[in-house]
Design brief:
Length: 820
């Protein structure tokens, strides 16, 4: 995407036919400045050069006159002056046959190189741009374009070191006289930054490129960088702004809908983002439009669009439609010349075919996927590789080769952490879902074979490899499993209608299985959580608490010991259970009265928690009731009582830093966090059910910075110095479906960033009730430094309170401790 020229034309501005008069060409430049510049720079000047080299003075004069007409029109309207400068150089040296011949060779080579670039023949394009640059000495503008375009050819060829070249061109190009060149350099630089995940800097480059293309009047290029900004925003996790950017880009590119490569790219990115957000039907409509646009670009792009839609249709269950797309793309690919681009598309075709046939013809699907993994395994395009690996694991599992399936899942685990949003959110979502399904099926195979340890290892692989905290399982299939010292680990998995409950004491693994009514169980969990959130009377929830105790705890109670601390590891659906409040009806006791509860993402994390040593030099940071912008967060109300409550708690920590109101800005928080050992946030948090990484803490606005800090941004921070985070806000440890769903959102992001432990909430908590719990928690924590035990002591304190409202699980069961 970094440098291919457009082959489209805007509506109402058809390309003038060969031999058009200078007047018609000038008028064309007025209507379509970008297309006119490309016609002259990439075509007519090359034809002038060829005519000079062949001694055809009449043709040379005709082509130069045509270029002059376009150049004068562009310069007159304040657009890019590359053509005007090129024409002046040629006319200035008209009497110097040696210089004119060199310029002719340069322009001829430049045009030839652009043709190679359009065909993705990178080596030939690079060689021709080298020639153009070597002979363009008398024409600085042409030399700069050749240098830039040589970098594009290197980029397409997979070479390294082009970033310095793009930075050099961006710094040297005259943004007033040559805004199109400067814009292209910033655009290409942004794309390199995007590929390595530097989304914020990439976006700044795209915004600068957009400003330059507006100056040049180059609308399609403006739309193209707006589309790339959309990718950067999605990569940053700011999907609301990303979709708004996509809409602006679509509006800009609308006149080019009959064949714009950039519009095709934009629709692809938008469809992938919609898929990742769970909007599959909407994504399919966008894919339909993408195929329509691509059909007017060229066969290779049309084939790519069809294959992308085939994958989306397969995921949506439309296998017949997917098969039609695969066959249509097969015919288009067969018509292409034998280039690297065709080889690439053939691998995409194999991937789409395997997606369709993995259940019906697993051996054929495996052969196709072997080819895809081999081709993309060299590091060409990681999203393609990561899409193929979990599918190959599935094919191997269908064929009974569990060792090969495990090996592929391990490769997915090893690279998943480096897959950026810009590389395809939809591909990532599809890859995760497939890998989790394979892990579940692998676990159930071991369960049926009576191999509890192997089943637990398979589930652990699914959690550690694909969980939001980014931990990667290094344990091999069937390798040693070990529980946390001095604690009992209890791991829950709901696979279909089978509930698996593992207990692990040291190295002893025991498994209890039972068939449950999955939907009834999930409805009970949701009903209970909702009832506690609105503080319904205990009588209305005690039945559900007892039933869930009987399902989840009673079968393994004899293995838990008396007063032993428990580490709970649960799937997303089960993670929504308020475990502390599960009630043994026979003994009239809550689970928290018998055990300290700690939650973990994986056994590996639970067994080796990173206990933070005391760091007296570190600050204790409190943020309370940020003065957010109401228009940015409609529906939220300020919580003025929190500031006073938080200051009272902070008095227990001499020298604590307290940010409230307008002080609680994003930049102030980021600065203070660097010095903190404990961080307590009391305010609003917003949880996104569809995309937990978009969940955010609500903050005060500051300058251009938004008044929010998202989970995605937190996860990219270095918070290894934080030994404790307390998120005294709503739904900061809420669960979602899928493996490790209990660590979705803000708590998972804090742990991913390195925080030692997090106290977070399962539902929308009541401020008055939470105040009492937080006071008790900090009092206990200052004495023990143990987050899990301090939370239990605070919960038991409320259970002994005189006030019935404080004794209710609604007051204390909504919070739990996760981490070491």
């Amino acid at each position: 995407r970094a440098g291919m020229r457009s082959l489209s034309a805007p509506e109402g501005a058809p390309r003038p036919p060969a031999g058009s008069s200078p007047v018609d060409l000038a008028a064309y430049a007025e209507r379509a400045p970008q297309e006119a510049r490309l016609l002259a720079l990439n075509g007519l000047l090359g034809e002038w050069g060829e005519a000079v080299l062949h001694g055809d003075a009449v043709r040379a004069r005709d082509r130069l006159r045509a270029v002059s007409a376009i150049a004068e029109s562009l310069e007159r309207r304040g657009g890019d002056a590359t053509l005007a400068d090129a024409v002046r150089v040629i006319r200035t040296h008209a009497g110097d046959s040696v210089t004119v011949r060199k310029l002719a060779m340069a322009h001829s080579a430049y045009t030839r190189a652009q043709r190679h670039l359009d065909q993705r023949v990178a080596d030939s394009a690079h060689a021709a741009f080298e020639v153009a640059h070597a002979y363009a000495g008398a024409s600085p503008a042409l030399a700069q374009w050749a240098a830039y375009s040589r970098g594009v050819a290197l980029f397409y060829g997979g070479a390294r070191g082009v970033e310095a070249l793009f930075r050099q061109v961006a710094a040297r190009a005259d943004p007033v006289r040559h805004p199109a060149l400067a814009g292209r350099a910033h655009w290409s630089l942004g794309t390199l930054l995007l590929r390595r995940g530097a989304y914020a800097e990439a976006r700044r480059r795209y915004l600068e490129a957009a400003r330059l293309f507006r100056r040049a009047g180059e609308r399609e290029h403006l739309g193209a960088v707006q589309a790339m900004e959309t990718e950067a925003l999605f990569g940053m996790g700011d999907e609301d702004t990303g979709f708004a950017s996509a809409y602006r880009a679509i509006e800009t590119l609308h006149p080019y809908r009959q064949g714009s490569l950039w519009l095709h790219n934009l629709l692809y990115v938008t469809a992938q983002a919609a898929t990742a957000r769970g909007l599959r039907r909407a994504a399919l409509r966008v894919h339909d439009e993408g195929v329509s646009v691509a059909a007017h670009v060229r066969p290779a792009v049309h084939a790519e669009a069809l294959l992308t839609r085939a994958l989306a249709r397969t995921a949506a269950g439309d296998r017949e439609g997917a098969a039609r797309d695969v066959e249509a793309s097969r015919a288009l690919i067969a018509s292409l010349p034998p280039t690297f681009q065709r080889t690439w598309l053939e691998q995409d075709l194999r991937l789409a075919y395997a997606e369709l046939s993995i259940r019906t013809h697993p051996a054929l699907a495996l052969a196709a996927l072997d080819s895809v993994v081999s081709f993309f395994g060299s590091g060409r395009v990681r999203p393609r590789l990561n899409a193929a690996l979990p599918r190959r694991a599935e094919a191997n599992l269908v064929l009974g080769d569990t060792a090969a399936a495990v090996a592929d899942l391990s490769r997915v685990a090893a690279v998943l952490d480096t897959l950026s949003g810009a590389e395809g959110a939809g591909v990532r979502a599809s890859m995760l879902e497939t890998a989790r399904q394979v892990s579940d099926r692998l676990a159930m195979l071991h369960v049926r074979a009576g191999q509890a340890s192997r089943a637990l290892a398979a589930l652990e692989r699914g959690r550690a490899s694909f969980g939001p905290t980014g931990a990667i399982a290094q344990r091999g299939e069937g390798g040693s499993l070990r529980g946390p010292p001095g604690e009992i680990a209890v791991e829950y998995a709901l696979v279909g209608d089978t509930l698996l409950v593992f207990t692990l004491a040291d190295t002893a693994v025991r498994l209890h299985t039972r068939v449950v009514d999955r939907h009834a169980m999930l409805r009970r969990i949701d009903r209970l959580r909702s009832a506690l959130e609105v503080r319904q009377p205990l009588d209305s929830v005690s039945g559900d608490l007892a039933v869930l105790y009987d399902q989840l705890v009673r079968p393994v109670r004899s293995r838990l010991g008396e007063g032993v601390s428990l580490v709970l590891i649960a799937d997303g659906e089960v993670a929504g259970v308020p475990f502390a409040a599960l009630r043994d009806g026979a003994r009239a006791r809550y689970l928290v009265q018998d055990h300290t509860l700690r939650f973990a993402n994986t056994l590996a994390e639970a067994a080796h928690p990173e206990r933070r040593p005391e760091q007296p030099s570190r600050d204790v940071l409190f943020v309370a009731d940020p003065a957010f912008e109401p228009r940015e967060h409609p529906g939220l109300q300020r919580l003025p009582g929190l500031a006073a409550d938080t200051r009272r708690i902070a008095q227990g920590y001499p020298g604590a830093v307290v940010l409230t109101g307008a002080e609680a800005r994003r930049d102030a928080l980021a600065t203070a966090l660097k010095q903190a050992g404990i961080f307590h946030f009391a305010g609003h948090a917003v949880f996104d059910d569809q995309r937990p990484v978009r969940s955010y803490l609500v903050l005060a606005p500051g300058g251009e910075a938004p008044g929010r800090l998202t989970a995605a941004e937190i996860a990219r921070m270095d918070l290894g110095h934080l030994r404790l985070v307390v998120l005294s806000a709503c739904q900061t440890q809420r669960s979602t479906s899928g493996r490790s769903g209990g660590f979705a959102g803000l708590s998972g992001a804090m742990l991913a960033a390195g925080a030692g432990g997090v106290v977070g909430s399962l539902w929308r908590v009541n401020d008055a009730l939470t105040r009492e719990l937080m006071v008790g928690f900090h009092h206990a924590y200052r004495g023990s430094g143990d987050g899990a035990d301090a939370l239990r002591q605070a919960q038991l304190r409320l259970l002994d309170a005189d006030d019935p409202a404080l004794r209710s699980p609604a007051a204390w069961a909504g919070f739990r401790y996760a981490g070491g």
